[in-house]
């Protein structure tokens, strides 16, 4: 529930074409302790003001020359499309009350003002509005949590799969390729066993930061398991565009780590799969990259390996221009 202070600090806009009415409402709100109140006598400014300030409450006169309150509400509805229209209509016309509610106002206040009614309706409406905002924020946080790994704050497997799908669709539209790099730290179990799980957690967080730091903004870096990460690259022309990023990732992971006064070194292995060469679906791409990772582990770790079809495509390209590409399938760091 919003606190009394939060209610008194809520952002309120008074809209009335009559200066006396504006002054009266400002006085009522000031006396009630509201601290964040502004007013306008220009109804055609309301939407722009709301876009800028995102008011918690708009006290809106219905009868105004030029744009009336109903027209203003129509504009506000476009701003608050899936939300809550924070309008409290002010009207001297009994017949306008229901029309105002039907037009989207949450409540109304009759003119001339009955002070007790004004206070109660404004308070109640702000309480609901702020509660609505709290709920919206809570739900956003929950969604974030459902899509991110709590230790590193990186996207989790669920979000990763969405990102791969988007990247693949983008590649299809632009007749480009996409690369999925499956990364698994080498000998991480030994770090946990020697220094403890909490120490291992610190290393994982540092690794995550380094992976993000050495990737492009548009790439996705996700954590998909204990010491397993996946990096997705879009706008790729072939294996040649993934080789350098993979080598760079191997290099940054191998920089020394300083945790709790201890200096530690670590390496990583990476499997690379390309869309569409190695697989056409999200699941198959991850699987192909995972298989290539297995090859890299078997070949001695601390290196990257590419899946067969992208390797063959790169080899064919290298054969066409032999001096450009010598070793296309694997790279030992
Ligand atoms: N600290 C920490 N450890 C984790 C977490 N999740 C999984 N692990 C541990 O990470 C280790 C991963 O095991 P492996 O990848 O099989 O071990 P490895 O020593 O890296 O083996 P190779 O990949 O073959 O080099 C296991 O010891 C898990 O217990 C976590 O959230 N925090």
TrEMBL record:
<dbReference type="GO" id="GO:0000160">
    <property type="term" value="P:phosphorelay signal transduction system"/>
</dbReference>
<feature type="domain" description="Response regulatory">
    <location>
        <begin position="11"/>
        <end position="126"/>
    </location>
</feature>
<dbReference type="InterPro" id="IPR029787">
    <property type="entry name" value="Nucleotide_cyclase"/>
</dbReference>
<dbReference type="InterPro" id="IPR000160">
    <property type="entry name" value="GGDEF_dom"/>
</dbReference>
<dbReference type="InterPro" id="IPR052163">
    <property type="entry name" value="DGC-Regulatory_Protein"/>
</dbReference>
<feature type="domain" description="GGDEF">
    <location>
        <begin position="176"/>
        <end position="309"/>
    </location>
</feature>
<feature type="modified residue" description="4-aspartylphosphate">
    <location>
        <position position="61"/>
    </location>
</feature>
<dbReference type="Pfam" id="PF00072">
    <property type="entry name" value="Response_reg"/>
</dbReference>
<protein>
    <submittedName>
        <fullName>Diguanylate cyclase</fullName>
    </submittedName>
</protein>
<dbReference type="InterPro" id="IPR001789">
    <property type="entry name" value="Sig_transdc_resp-reg_receiver"/>
</dbReference>
<dbReference type="Pfam" id="PF00990">
    <property type="entry name" value="GGDEF"/>
</dbReference>
<dbReference type="InterPro" id="IPR043128">
    <property type="entry name" value="Rev_trsase/Diguanyl_cyclase"/>
</dbReference>
<dbReference type="GO" id="GO:0003824">
    <property type="term" value="F:catalytic activity"/>
</dbReference>
<keyword id="KW-0597">Phosphoprotein</keyword>
<dbReference type="InterPro" id="IPR011006">
    <property type="entry name" value="CheY-like_superfamily"/>
</dbReference>
